[in-house]
Write a structure and sequence with these properties.
- It is a single chain.
- With about 425 residues, the protein is an alpha+beta fold.
- It has a single domain, classed as Rossmann fold.
- It has 13 helices and 18 strands.
- The strands form 5 sheets. Strands 8-15-16-5-17-18 form a 6-stranded mixed beta sheet, with helices on both faces. A 4-stranded antiparallel beta sheet has the order 4-3-6-7. It has a 4-stranded antiparallel beta sheet with strand order 11-12-13-14.
- Strand 12 and strand 13 form a beta hairpin.
- The protein is globular and about 80 Å long.
- The termini are far apart.
- The mean pLDDT is about 90.
């Protein structure tokens, strides 16, 4: 752009406008009265159980990947024959079709009006790519007894997101890792800065491997000092929950020079904290930052205050001109090139938080201000509410105890007269 200054032509530049965020709006669908979410680079949704978080995220997947979902069902010989209710039951789970009410339910993607019965039918579009990879809360079911399950091993009415995720993990183990016995640590998968906390906080020095001695590929943990691998059901609950998540991250972070997986732009992870100690949760969040570094948009649903601790810290760093060194300190990362790059990239990302409440309007609580008038924001969607009440209850008891008059202790006399 040319601007005239004192009669002299000067070249000026304008800052490029930030692209508008993608927005999904849903009204009157199941327990969701009204939810409008403008997605950031990292979007976190919180709220009690049965408030519609999973329905919202599954609908996001359906909106983005409608044709690819229909093709997957067709590939696995699942035919709905144009029956919208049957498709919605097969996608969300049995009975979900009844959640859509023709007279009141509404669905908008970036201001474009849609509806579930319409999405239950495939289009004739030539491009049928997948753009969102979904890691569901039920992911442990993808490893029944340590054996991966393919799409067809599940039943009609089992959520599509679980079936598809399980099939992707199954394909990864059967093909990409088919000839490899050891799955973690993998020198060509994830930076060593990421592998170390996984070893320390999640596998405790054990190695994740495939055992095919019974003619079936089963996941085992090779524990130092033990000849035989530890079977899946003998693992800790956290290890069982984390392993399918790790395999999903392997799928999203290909070996070699590829930064991302094919056409995938979005990643949804439900309850990444499941079964994990806070140090394990912090390790998983570090892997989430790696997904952001690679250019994915990430959406999390969570019941863990540790997740919001991270978001709040990153928000404060950005506002107070924090540095990549602050990010490294937050995650206890070494001073190396990878960690520095990760910290710099993450400080440029936009983080947003939304609170779901049954039959209420979803609220934006992204500021996470402890002093906010809105209790949902001040208590981080209820995740720190109990801790606050605990502090208040103890303070009341202390004040009541200290305000009571003290009785003087009676001391027994040792004189002979008093003893008589």
């Amino acid at each position: 752009m040319t601007e005239i200054v004192n009669g002299i032509a000067a070249q000026t530049t304008r800052r490029p406008r930030k692209p508008k965020p993608d927005v999904l709006r849903i009204e009157n669908l199941g327990p969701i009265r009204e939810a409008e979410i403008a997605f950031g680079d990292l979007t976190v949704i919180v709220g009690p159980q049965a408030t519609g978080k999973s329905i919202f995220l599954q609908t996001l997947k359906l909106v983005l990947d409608r044709d690819q979902i229909h093709d997957t069902f067709k590939h696995h010989s699942v035919a709905f024959n144009g029956d919208s209710a049957a498709f919605l039951g097969g996608y969300y789970g049995k009975g979900m079709a009844a959640a859509w009410k023709e007279d009141s339910s509404k669905l908008h993607w970036n201001a474009k009006s849609l509806n579930l019965p319409g999405l239950a039918k495939a289009t004739k579009a030539r491009e049928r790519k997948e753009s969102l990879f979904f890691i569901p809360a039920q992911r442990v079911m993808s490893l029944a007894g340590g054996v991966t399950q393919n799409f067809g091993q599940f039943n009609y009415g089992d959520p599509y997101t679980l079936r598809y995720f399980s099939d992707a993990v199954h394909d990864l183990l059967q093909n990409e890792f088919g000839a490899k016995g050891e799955l973690f640590p993998q020198p060509n998968r994830l930076n060593d800065t990421l592998r170390k906390p996984i070893t320390d906080h999640l596998f405790g020095g054990s190695k994740l491997a495939v055992d095919a001695s019974d003619f079936t590929k089963r996941l085992v943990l090779k524990v130092p000092g033990h000849k035989e691998g530890l079977p899946f059901l003998a693992w800790s609950a956290g290890q069982r929950e984390f392993t399918p998540l790790l395999l999903g991250l392997y799928w999203l972070c290909p070996a070699g020079g590829a930064r991302k997986r094919d056409d995938i732009e979005w990643v949804v992870i439900e309850e990444p904290e499941m079964g994990l100690h806070p140090q394990g949760i912090a390790t998983v969040l570090l892997l989430v930052l790696e997904l952001l570094r690679r250019g994915y948009k990430v959406v999390l649903s969570t019941h863990s205050p540790v997740v919001l601790d991270m978001v709040w810290a990153l928000q404060e760093f950005k506002q107070l001109k924090g540095t990549e060194g602050d990010v490294r300190a937050l995650f206890d990362l070494p001073n190396n090139n990878y960690s520095k790059d990760l910290g710099k990239v993450i400080l440029k990302k936009d983080c947003r938080v939304y609170y779901f409440e049954r039959d209420q309007t979803v609220r934006d609580i992204s500021k996470l201000d402890p002093g906010a008038a809105d209790a949902a924001e001040a208590q981080w969607g209820g995740l720190v509410g109990f801790a606050s009440r605990t502090g208040d209850a103890i303070a009341n008891v202390v004040n009541r105890y200290e305000s009571k008059p003290r009785r003087k202790k009676r001391t027994a006399s040792v004189t002979g007269a008093d003893s008589q």
